[in-house]
Design a protein that fits this description.
Radius of gyration: 21 Å
CATH topology of the largest domain: Rossmann fold
CATH superfamily of the largest domain: HUPs
Number of helices: 12
Number of strands: 10
Largest sheet: 6 strands, mixed
Number of domains: 2
Shape: globular
CATH architecture of the largest domain: 3-Layer(aba) Sandwich
Bound molecules: iron/sulfur cluster, zinc ion
Strand content: 5-15%
Order of helices and strands: EEHEHEHEHHHEHHEEHHHEEH
Distance between the termini: 61 Å
Length: 321
């Protein structure tokens, strides 16, 4: 049996929890947590993520990233700004109930109030309904695409209606590098320009969006959860598709390079923000109000209302068959 020898914490000398390349040595749980919190704080300050933000809504899914995000933000800024968590009950069998438990426990631990929006109650359908309709070829959008639209819409609507200045989500460094590289390769400039730490509101009914974990990796949030014994959902979503070939190949190569050149991911994303995106000069979308719900939309009817209409029609046809 192989026994892993842990060194002592470089800062306080107590038993090490994990090796941290930036310190060229081990840190204990407490100093590891402080190291990650300091990284987030630097990012928040450098990119002005909380500029003008007095009330912040945090989207919490019960996964490791959003649970870490809530813990870190409440630790760093809980006394200075109002922070509230929002969980969206997507109606995914087993997974949604377990996620809600984890999110509620995480909020209690962080000392933050949490609210729940149930999509079945509010809008009459669940992601399970959408997944079944997709399997039966009655709608063309796969569950994750439906889910993404639903989550973005609800987070924004809730924030605007309840007077929050910004919405924070748990996208991490690996999400940023993977999405950005795929967007560059496929020429999706419209999506590439959204890979930024802060997207300012451009419409009175659109909340500013911030991503404070943008320089914290997957591995780092996984360890942060362990170091702080945070509650996270154990099961995975049954609708999660296998990763797309291009995306997983690119992510694998980026990981390989990071292994050879530590700091590569942060360098890639930092150069994208400071040197590449400012050169693109892409005009931001012109938004008006959706004719059905009044929320911001690029067309007459917003993507959420179009989606809802398609799903509702397909469900009612099913009932009459
Ligand atoms: Fe939604 Fe897809 Fe994530 Fe499941 S895997 S929660 S359907 S985005
Ligand atoms: Zn220590
Ligand atoms: Zn609408």
């Amino acid at each position: 049996m192989q026994v892993q020898i842990m060194g002592k914490c470089k800062i306080c000398g107590s038993p090490g929890f994990t090796y941290v390349p930036e310190y060229k040595g081990y840190l204990c749980k407490e100093h590891y947590s402080r190291f990650i919190q300091a990284k987030v704080d630097r990012c928040v300050k450098r990119h002005g993520l909380l500029r003008g933000v007095k009330r912040l809504l945090v989207g919490v899914s019960g996964g490791k990233d959003s649970v870490s995000l809530l813990h870190i933000l409440s630790h760093l800024y809980g006394g200075r700004i109002e922070i509230k968590a929002l969980f969206i009950n997507l109606g995914i069998p087993v997974y949604s109930a377990e996620s809600m438990q984890a999110a509620a426990k995480a909020a209690t631990l962080a000392g933050v109030d949490i609210d729940v929006v149930d999509i079945k109650e509010e809008y009459g359908f669940t992601i399970r309904d959408a997944a079944e309709l997709f399997l039966e070829r009655k709608i063309s959008r796969p569950p994750c695409s439906v889910c993404g639209t639903v989550k973005r819409y609800i987070l924004n609507k809730y924030a605007v209606e309840k007077g929050f200045d910004a919405v924070a989500t748990g996208h991490n460094l690996d999400d940023f590098t993977r999405f950005s590289a795929v967007n560059i390769v496929t020429g999706m400039v419209k999506d590439l320009v959204k890979q930024v730490p802060r997207e300012d509101s451009i419409h009175p009914k659109m909340a500013t969006r911030i991503k404070p974990l943008c320089l914290v990796s997957n591995e780092e949030t996984r360890k942060y959860v362990l170091a702080n014994d945070l509650p996270v959902v154990e099961s995975s979503c049954p609708y999660k598709p296998p990763p797309r070939k291009l995306s997983s190949l690119i992510a694998g190569k980026i990981d390989e390079i990071e292994g050879e050149i530590p700091g590569f991911k942060a360098m890639f994303i930092g150069n994208l923000w400071s040197k590449i995106l400012p050169m693109l000069n892409t005009p931001r979308e012109q938004l008006r109000e959706c004719e059905l719900c009044g929320m911001p939309s690029s067309g007459k009817v917003c993507s959420f209302c179009r989606l809802r209409e398609t799903i509702t029609k397909a469900m009612s046809k099913e009932r009459f068959l």
